[in-house]
Structure formats: C-alpha cells, structure tokens
C-alpha cells in the first residue's frame, strides 16, 4: 500500500496539535506566546483569502491547501518533532541532524536516479497520485528529489547551506567540522543537479563564510583535508550516459550558458515577469486563484505575482511578514544575525522564481529556539 507524503504530515501535525491543545490547559506560557503569534498571522492570511473569495464570488481551495493548511500542519509537525527531541537534543545538534537528513535525502535521490529500478520501488511506496507518471518521465532526464523535488529541492538545499554556514562558525570539533564541510559539498553538488536554484544558497552561504576571516581560514584548512575523501568517492560513480546528462543539467550553464537549459529557463522566467498583476481589485484582494487545471493561474510561476493574484498585496505583505517574524524571533545565540539576513535573502530571491514557503523549515527552529531551546 502506498504512503502519500501529505498523509504522514497530517499524522504528525495532528499529534503536534494535540500536544498544543493539552498545553493550553496546563498554561504553558512560552508555548502560548510563540504559537499564538504564529497562528494569529496565519489567521489573518486566511481572512484575507475569505475576503478575496467573497469579493470575487469564487470558491477556490488551492491557496488554502497549498499555503495556509500546509504551513499549519508543518508548524504542528515541527512542534511534535521538538517534543520528541526535547530531552535528548540540544540546539546545535538539532541543526546538525537537519543537515544530515538533507544530505541523506539527496544521496538516496542520486542513487535512485542512477538505478531506475530502485527509483520505481521507492516511488511505489511514497505515492504522488496524479503526478506519478510525470515524475517517472522526468527521472529519465533529471534527478527527482525524494521528499522535495525540483524547485522545492532548491529551497531546502539553499536553506540548509545557510544552516551549515551558521554551524561552521561555532563548531570546534575537528571531526564535526569535516562532516559539515563534506555535507556542504554534497548539498551544493548534488543539490544543483536536482535544482539549479540551489546556486542561490551556495552563493549566499559562501558570502557568509567570506565575511568571517577566521571562519574562512578554518574552512579552507579543513576543505583540503577532505579532498582525498571526495576524490575516492568519485571513483565509485559510474561514468554512464545518465550521469553525463545529470552533469549537463546541473553545470552546463557554467560553461555554455547561451545553449544551456538554464538559459531557456531564464527566458521563460523573464516572460512570466511580463504577466504583472494589474487592476485595483486584483492588487487589493486578488483573484482568489492560485492555479488552474492546466497549470498556474495566468501562466506565471513568479512567487510574488502568484500570491498577489490569489490574495492581493495585503496577502503578499502578510506572507512575507510571517517569514520575517519567524526568522527574527529565532534567538541570536542559536542562529546569528548574519545567518538570519542570509535566510531573508534566500526567501526574497527565491520568490522571484516561484513560491518559496520556508515556514515548514523555519517552524522547527522557531519552536525549538523559543520554547524548548536550552543554552
């Protein structure tokens, strides 16, 4: 029997909500402070959607399902995870575990791409319903990330690379430093073959490392120590046509941008930026629609425009404010100001390409830092 990923999120989110409800009765002040702030902002976004539905006389649930409910269930799922890890995990360990999970996910995705029979087996377990055929066909020409695919994979990768930059600054254990650098290389290399959007996270995280001279020297020193490990690892990768296609997809734009797939994607994105929302009604409360049966509403994938078309400028402001609020509320001794600015850059830049919802990832660190974190 197949296990749809969203059903798993429903189960963990439900468990997190039950814990939240229980702690309301026991008067957990920290939980109330942090959770009520987030829920209040989500509720505002929901009311803006309702206003848009009433003004347009259209009922559409795509924005409700893909943005609002997904964010809510992700938040309570993160709360459930934090409760499970509270007694055994400290702040930095949580970040490291997050990094290692992303590395594991990318490695499994890469192996599945190189071994199509394994890919079929994995995706027969984790069903994606109506998009199964499309994903299987795409796996013939590009790496399909398990758990987060395509643009979603680029979001996860970019977010995680900023986390690694934050950890490198504080880590003093040599073994952990080398593991983090190795993780950085894995996420940067396989990540860009999964989604070229990963280049945003690579550039921002490298810039954060360059800002700290001591961190830069430390990074260079340990990087050369793991070069032999990387060289040996490459020996075990078969030099097949599939691997060549994957390399071309991820890195061809660095050597021949004009004739690369990245150039075509950039051209399509520029065309989408011509579909600018206009009209006072659309700008104020949107047209409700996020997507249609044939694709994205108004044929644009630009994150800012898609949200404006759905819930107007007010909805876009609340969506952006939620992200800024959650990022800034994470305690500074947990994730520093420089890395927070990095998260903000990732968020605002990635929404140029598509809807970059970081709430599922921010929730984990927002909750752990504010409610359960121990320093």
Q: Quick recap of the structure?
A:
The protein is mainly alpha-helical. It is 74% helix and 1% strand.
What does the secondary structure layout of this molecule look like, with pairings?
Elements: H1 5-25, H2 29-56, H3 62-85, H4 91-114, H5 116-125, H6 132-138, H7 151-170, H8 174-194, H9 198-210, H10 213-235, H11 241-255, H12 261-272, H13 280-285, E1 291-292, E2 295-296, H14 303-329, H15 337-350, H16 359-372
Antiparallel strand pairs: 1-2
Model description:
- The protein has two domains: 1-88 and 273-375, no CATH class; 89-259.
- 74% of the residues lie in helices and 1% in strands.
- The protein has helices at residues 5-25, 29-56, 62-85, 91-114, 116-125, 132-138, 151-170, 174-194, 198-210, 213-235, 241-255, 261-272, 280-285, 303-329, 337-350, 359-372, and strands spanning 291-292, 295-296.
- The protein has a two-stranded antiparallel ribbon with strand order 1-2.
- Helix 1 (5-25) packs across helix 3 (62-85), helix 2 runs antiparallel to helix 3 and helix 14 (303-329) runs parallel beside helix 16.
- The longest helix has 28 residues, at 29-56.
- The protein starts with a helix and ends with a helix.
- Mean pLDDT is 80; it is low at 1-5.
């Amino acid at each position: 029997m197949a296990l749809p990923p969203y059903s798993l999120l429903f189960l963990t989110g439900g468990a997190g909500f039950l814990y939240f409800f229980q702690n309301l009765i026991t008067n957990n002040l920290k939980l109330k402070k942090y959770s009520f702030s987030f829920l209040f902002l989500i509720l505002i976004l929901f009311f803006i959607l309702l206003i848009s539905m009433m003004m347009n006389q259209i009922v559409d649930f795509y924005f409700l399902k893909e943005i609002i409910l997904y964010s809510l269930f992700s938040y309570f799922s993160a709360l459930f995870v934090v409760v499970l890890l509270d007694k055994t995990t400290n702040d930095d360990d949580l970040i490291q575990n997050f990094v290692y999970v992303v590395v594991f996910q990318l490695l499994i995705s890469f192996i599945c791409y190189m071994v199509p029979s394994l890919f079929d087996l994995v995706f027969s377990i984790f069903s994606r319903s109506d998009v199964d055929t499309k994903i299987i066909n795409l796996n013939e020409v590009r790496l399909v990330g398990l758990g987060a695919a395509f643009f979603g994979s680029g979001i996860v990768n970019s977010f995680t690379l900023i986390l690694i930059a934050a950890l490198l600054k504080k880590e003093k254990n040599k073994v952990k430093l080398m593991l983090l650098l190795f993780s950085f290389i894995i996420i940067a290399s396989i990540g860009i073959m999964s989604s070229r959007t990963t280049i945003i996270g690579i550039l921002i995280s490298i810039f954060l490392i360059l800002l700290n001279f001591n961190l830069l020297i430390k990074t260079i020193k340990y990087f050369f120590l793991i070069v032999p490990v990387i060289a040996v690892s490459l020996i075990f990768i078969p030099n097949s046509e599939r691997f060549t296609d994957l390399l071309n997809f991820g890195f061809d734009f660095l050597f021949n941008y004009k004739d690369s797939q990245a150039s075509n994607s950039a051209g399509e994105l520029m065309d989408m930026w011509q579909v600018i929302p206009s009209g006072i009604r659309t700008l104020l409360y949107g047209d409700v629609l996020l997507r249609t049966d044939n694709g994205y509403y108004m044929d644009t994938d630009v994150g800012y425009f898609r949200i404006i078309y759905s819930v107007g400028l007010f909805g876009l402001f609340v969506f952006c404010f939620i992200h800024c609020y959650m990022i800034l509320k994470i305690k500074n001794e947990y994730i520093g100001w420089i890395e927070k600015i990095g998260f903000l850059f990732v968020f605002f830049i990635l929404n140029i390409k598509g809807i970059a919802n970081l709430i599922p990832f921010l929730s984990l660190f927002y909750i752990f830092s504010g409610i359960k974190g121990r320093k």
